[in-house]
Amino acid sequence: MKKLISIFVLLVSFAFTSNSYSKTEIHWWYGNSGFLGDVIIEIANRFNESQDEYMVIPTGKGSYEDNMAATIAAFRAGDQPHYSQVYDAGAAIMVAQVKNGVVIGFEEMAEKYGIDVDADNYIPGIKNFYADGDGKMIGVPFNSSTCLMYANMDILNEVGIEEVPKTYEEFEGMAQKILDAGYIPLLQSHSPWIWTENFFSRHNLLMTDGNNGYDAVPTKTLFADTEAFVYHWTKVKEWYEKGYYGYKGRAWGDNQAPFTNGEAAFWFGSAASFGGMKGVLPNFTTNPIPYWDSVTGGKEYPTFIGGAANWILNGHTEEEYKGLAKFIEFMGSPEMDLYYHNMTGYAAVTKGGIELAETINFYRASPYHKAVGDQLGLEGSTIPGGYRAGNWPQIREVIYENVEPMLNGDITVEKALSNMDKGAAKLLKQFAKTL
Amino acid sequence: MKKVQFKSNYSQYFFLAPQLLILLIFLYWPIIQTFKDAFTMQDAFGFGSQFAGFDNFLFIFSDPSYFTAFKFTIIYSFVITVITGSIGLLLAVQANKVMHGKSAYKTLLIWPYAIAPAVVGVMANYFFSERYGLLHHLFNNLWGFNWYENVFDAYIYVIIAGSWKQISANFIFFLAGLQAIQKTVIEASIIDCKSNIRRFWTITFPLLMPTTFFLIIINITYAFFDTFGIIDTTTIGAPGSETKTLVYKAYIDGFKGLDLGSAGAQSIMMMIIVLVITIFQFRYIEGKIHYN
């Protein structure tokens, strides 16, 4: 009995000591996994080691969709994290939640708790993507990517192709050669993101009415009405039938795997796929995504920012927000920005980070990292740098649902695109009702 | 027999309370919430909530992929019920005949029942992987298998994935049913009829009818609701929305698409469908069954 009591006393005293040392906890939820998730944990660890007042606790919730659903469910239950990573397709929903007091905008936070990083320190294109109608930055830019073309240089050397294609016309010209050598010429991992949303941005075309939702709440998508888009998918279908393009289902990884295994010449993926591929595939390059020369007349336009931002959620104590402000400051520092850029391949999001990269001649040492900034930094677009359309995760689902029957020949390209428009219009109407 | 009576009039409520509380929290409260969601229009975070009448229902009825999901769910539950029931019955009859190592056979056949649907899906994923999948290669050699775009191939994929584990459930119940049949009945029938097959269909199978009826309901419920994990880990509804079950569609719209109104309306539709099927079964099939 005495022994028991002494153990009890010991335990209690432990509990108190750990309590007296306890730091203010800040919860950060994220939707990356694998290598990208590890980097997020590393960032939190570095912050925790850099000071001893606050502790950031990162929690992975699965995919982007999973994390968004988890964050919403947690908010409805009054148990939300302080900071949550929400992806591009959810940006319209999150920006709309500032007025309901769910989300605290970055600029409001910076004013109240003194964040030493100015909103203008973030690259304009990225800042605007996560800003509200008045241009005030709401989400805090974090992992910003865009779609890039990865090329297996060993295959290209083998079949005697010297330069990677800049345009789809050039790709079409070399595809047969690659196919004849026994390789899949082209794969891509995300039909809605790469070949729909970013098809429009890459060719300087509007995707929805209401100026991509920036001027007015959009009521319809312009898929079937855009001649170039119909042309593109007609070509894709033709390529699929000839074997120039291989479709491996909806799973990102299933489409990436043949490329990583050296069976495909080109693969369209995210700038951030780079980190996981380095060291696996010996000789690859990252390149801007091709465009149709016939559509743009030889001009190149920037693609949309992809990836995600972190959003500050309401309902916590002043002390915790002070800690979060410190953490945002930490992540916005040039060193951390460049660290993340280097590790993952995501774009550097701060001007400080880019300057630092130039000072240390980063891109000469690692040319892979250059394509993302080059593509996003293109000028001359007349369309907005993003789209503000609600229910977009479901619209992506509608796009997928029509791509497959189009490829297998159940429906024509025109029919598939008009189905997408119809499905999207209904979802946009539904979203407009909740505003 | 002496009547046992509690003295207090309230103590029965005390003993019932834990059970009622669980039902209330985990069953009735969600149902009420679902009704609330189905008849309101709200944004993802639950703001801007307003009464929408039947708008959410009209919305799903104007959605072609809802009918695709409906069609698939009906086909899927029918095929799964037939396949798992017949293979389960066949295995049970055979295992019941075995003289040596009976419990070894039984254990091995029951095992898959303990595996969670999501795990079954991941395993099926390997078998149907284009890279290293045995079944993928087998079917590909037979007719050029490609579930990414071919609806029929995708059906085969999810049907095999969905049936495998449920065969075990059917096996257990059929085996228990067979062992409950009185020996004397079987022995008497052996004297009257030489044909094994004829004896099975005229004596054994009718005596198994209560089990069969029970399993039909269980299998349909399984195909409707429990295959969620299998769909999510295999085809995720592709190609098109051809292999989405109603439950999976409600999940996608509610949790990925964050449209709780539509998901709520779909849940209520599902409730009605299951209700209709069950009423039909009890009215028209159960009448033909003789319980001992």
Which architecture of chain B per CATH? Orthogonal Bundle
Q: What top-tier CATH class of chain B fits best?
A: Mainly Alpha
- Low-pLDDT residue spans of chain B: none
What multimeric state do the chains show?
Answer: heterodimer
Q: Considering the protein shown, what is the CATH homologous superfamily of chain B?
A: MetI-like
| DSSP summary, beta strand count of chain B | 2
User: Rough shape of chain A?
Assistant: globular
| Broad structural category of chain A | alpha/beta
Mean pLDDT of chain B: 89
Structural class of chain B: mainly alpha
Work out the radius of gyration of chain B. Answer: 24 Å
Side-by-side strand order of the widest sheet of chain B: 1-2
Radius of gyration of chain A: 23 Å
Structural description of this entry:
Chain A is of the alpha/beta class and 435 residues long. Chain A has 2 domains: 190 residues, D-Maltodextrin-Binding Protein, domain 2 (3-Layer(aba) Sandwich), CATH 3.40.190.10; 202 residues, Periplasmic binding protein-like II (D-Maltodextrin-Binding Protein, domain 2), CATH 3.40.190. Helix content of chain A is 51%, strand content 13%. In chain A, the strands form 2 sheets. In chain A, strands 1, 2, 3, 4, 5 and 10 form a 6-stranded mixed β-sheet that branches. In chain A, strands 7-8-6-9 form a 4-stranded mixed β-sheet. The radius of gyration of chain A is 23 Å and the shape is globular. The termini of chain A are far apart. The relative contact order of chain A is 0.16. Chain B is mainly α and 292 residues long. Chain B is 73% helix and 1% strand. Chain B is built from 12 helices and 2 strands; from the N terminus they run H-E-E-H-H-H-H-H-H-H-H-H-H-H. In chain B, strands 1-2 form a two-stranded antiparallel sheet. In chain B, a hairpin with an 8-residue loop joins strand 1 and strand 2. The longest helix of chain B is centred in the N-terminal third of the chain and has 34 residues. The two termini of chain B are 27 Å apart. Chains A and B meet through helix 3, helix 20 and helix 21 of A and helix 11 of B.
